[in-house]
Each structure stands twice: as C-alpha cells, then as structure tokens.
Amino acid sequence: MNDFVISTIEYVRDWVSDSAPWAVNLVFALLFGVLSAIGYWLTKMMLRMVESMVQRSDTTWDDDLLSSALLSRVSMLTPGFLGMYLLPHFYNEAPTFFDTSIRIYLCVVVSWAVSALITNLYNALYNRSNLRPYAVKGVFQMVRLLIYGVAIIIIISTLVGKSPTAILAAFGGLAAVMMLVFKDTILGLVASVQISANKMLHRGDWIVMDSHKTNGEVLDISLTTIRVLNWDNSVTTIPPYAMVSESFRNYQDMRRAGGRRIDRSILIDLNSVKFLNEDKIEDLRAQGFIPAQAEGKTTNLGLLRAYLDHKLATDNRVVHDMLYMVRQMEPTPTGLPLQIYFFTSSTAWKDFEQVQSDFFDEVFATVQLFELRMFQAPSGTDFQKLAN
Fold first, then answer.
1. Environment class of 260 (CB within 10 Å of its CB; exposed 0-12, middle 13-18, buried 19+)
2. How many Å apart are CA 113 and CA 76, to the nearest integer?
3. Residue 232 to residue 348: CA distance in whole angstroms
4. Integer Cα distance of 359 and 122 in angstroms
5. Which of 123, 137, 210, 295 has the largest count of CB atoms under 10 Å?
6. What's the mean pLDDT when you consider all of the chain?
7. Dist CA 58 CA 355 (whole Å)
8. CA dist 198 to 133, 194, 205, Å?
9. What gap in Å lies between CA 29 and CA 35, rounded to an integer?
10. For residues 22 and 11, what is the distance between their CA atoms, to the nearest angstrom?
11. Is pTM beyond 0.70 here?
C-alpha cells in the first residue's frame, strides 16, 4: 500500500513536470489539501472511538486527561505529518515556503496539544479533593508559558534558518530586560511553589490579611494574583509573593478542628465582691446556681466562677475535648477581668456569633443574681442621676 501511494505521487509529479512545470506547486497544494482532509477525517473518527471507549471505562482519570479538546488538537497533527511525508516524494528539493510552513504548523499544533494536556492534568488534580492541594494553578500556568516560549524559539529559528541554541544565545542579552518585564510572573511562580510546598493556602480557605484589608474566602490562586471574596462581597486581589513575604491568618485549620475559640472577659466592680450569707446561698442553690463543686465557697465571685465553669462543662455547644475555663485576670483600674475561655462546636460565622451572644446574654443577667456589679464607664444618664 505504501509503495503504491509513493509511486502514484511520483507519477503525478513527473506528469505535471513534463506537461505544465509552472503548475507543480499548485498540484502539490491541491494534493496536500485533499489528502490532509481525508487524513484529518480518518484520524478524528479513530479518536472519537477512543473517546467513546474512555467514557465507558470505570476510571475517571482518562476522562479528565483525554478530553475532547485534547483529542481534537491531536487530530490536527495529521495534516502536518502528511505534509512532511509528501514533500520529499513530490520534490527532489522541497520549496522553502512549503517546508517552513509545515514545520511551523506542526510546532504550533504540538505546543497547543501539550498545553491542553497540561490543562487537563490541572483539572484532574483539582477535581479530586485529596489531590487538590497539589493543583497549584500558578505552577501549571508557568509550565504552559514555558511550552509556548519553547515553541516561539523553534518557530523563530525555523524562519531565520538558525539553530534554537543560537536564538537562545541572542536572547541572552535581553535577559535583564525580560527579568524586569516578567518580574511579577517570576515572583508569582516562586511564591506559588512555596505556597504549595508548605500547604499555606488553598481555594476555599478563610483568610484574614490586615495589610490588604482582606477578610474572606480564597476564590482563585493563579500565577500572578490571588483573588479573595470578602464577607462584604467585595473582591481583593493580592500578589502571591505578598502571601509569602507578609503575614496572614488562615482559619481553615480551625474549621477542620471543629472548634472555634471564644475568649472574652467581663469586668467586675471590685467594690461588689463580698461574702454571701447563708440565706442568699440557699436561695441561689434553690434556683440551681450552686453546683456541687461550689460547696464550701462563700464569696459571690467564687460562686459565680464555679457556676460558669459548671455551665461550660454541661453545655452541648461547647467542645469539651478542648480547653475551657473561667479565671481571674490581673485587676485593672477599670475593674477585675473575669475571663471566659472555650471553643464552640460550630465554626460557621453566624452560628458562632449566635452562641457567643446567647452565652454572654446569660452571663450578664446572672452576674446580678450573685450581687456583683459589672464595671462600665459612667454615661451622661449616670451624671444626670447623680445631679438629681
């Protein structure tokens, strides 16, 4: 079959050369066009069969890697290979125009197909939760840029008739300018590698970065930008190298741990701290405000601490595997800080705020039952009462 095709092509060439030498290039272009169309169609039919087999397979990796876009670009290689095959059999010395055009076409399509494969690999990693941390968009973007860069160098070397190494040597003098132009890209690549290697940041992470007034979830991590959707629905764009060179808080580990910390203090007026008489203690016990661990305590502040500690120990909104406590802090001119420290079982922002508000609503109301006063700076109403 191969000998028949070669002999046919050579016969057509000899016939055209003898009868109409001026039409050799036109006949080759027509022959190349017809054979390329047939070869492209046959290749596409074969690749469609491959795609059908891939879709029916049980694995999903082949579905992600061998996408329709990639197979379509692979089928576009057929005309280029046919041209490289036909040239030496049709011409004793191939015209520079045809040879150069086919080589450039092959270089463009190969780089395009490899770029599609890189994109498919990124999508395959991103679609799997266990591999998503390794799907760093910036790294894949940089690989695609390198592929296109190599393709451009090969195309230039083909056009000028020089080797790719000579082109690279010529570009060496422009290295300083290229470093300046692509400074953000280079810094972004280095930062992306560091972020990925150290597992510092992923899509969906909740981060707070005060220097950029950012507080929200990461939308996208690319080679040159990190987009964060703030809780006010605004979007902040941060360069990746800023995440490495500056500090930020990532709350994702808190979410995974299943407990969000509440660390607040109430200020007790020291003048209200005292011993309670037996009648008051019995009254509090009857209302359920004196737990078993508070027996023997007679100060209103000690009884309040015991009650709050017992409340934390029995509240199902508190994560009991994590530290929780009620303690006195060092007295201040504005009163005695009573710190309440625990972790809520819900880490969602709204639920967390609801638990915190409900808990301290009860704390503020309970303080007065122990005949304690909370300190707050006097307001205009207080001065008016004093005047009256």
1. buried
2. 9
3. 16
4. 46
5. 137
6. 80
7. 46
8. 10, 6, 15
9. 10
10. 17
11. no
Could you read off the pLDDT of 167-193 as tens digits, one per residue? Answer: 666 666 566 666 666 677 777 777 877
Say how far apart CA 135 and CA 124 lie, in whole Å: 9
* Side chain identity at residue 15, one-letter code: W
pLDDT tens column, 114-157: 888 888 888 887 777 766 665 567 677 778 888 888 888 888 88
- State phi, psi for 338 to the nearest 5 degrees: -110, 105
Question: Do the beta carbons of residue 55 and residue 4 sit within 8 Å?
Answer: no
Q: Which amino acid is at 17?
A: S
Q: What is the pLDDT of residue 40?
A: 77
Q: For residue 308, what pLDDT band results from cuts at 50, 70 and 90?
A: very high
Backbone CA torsion sign across 241, 242, 246, 249: negative
At residue 19, does pLDDT exceed 70? no
In angstroms, what CA-CA distances link 335 with 193, 331, 338, 340? 50, 6, 9, 16
Question: For every residue of the chain, which 3-state class applies, written as one string?
Answer: CHHHHHHHHHHHHHHHHHHCHHHHHHHHHHHHHHHHHHHHHHHHHHHHHHHHHHHHCCCCHHHHHCCHHHHHHHHCHHHHHHHHHHHHHHCCCCCHHHHHHHHHHHHHHHHHHHHHHHHHHHHHHHCCCCCHHHCCHHHHHHHHHHHHHHHHHHHHHHHHCCCHHHHHHHHHCCHHHHHHHCHHHHHHHHHHHHHHHCCCCCCCCEEEEHHHCEEEEEEEECCCCEEEEECCCCEEEECHHHHHHCCCEECHHHHHHCCEEEEEEEEECHHHCCECCHHHHHHHHHCCCCCHHHCCCCEHHHHHHHHHHHHHHHCCCECCCCCCEEEECCCECCEEEEEEEEEECCCCHHHHHHHHHHHHHHHHHHHHHCCCCECCCCCHHHHHHHHC
Tokens 């879709």: give the residue: 55
Nearest Cα residue to 252 out of 209, 218, 286:
218
Burial of 128 (0-12, 13-18, 19+ CB in 10 A): middle
* 189, amino acid identity: L
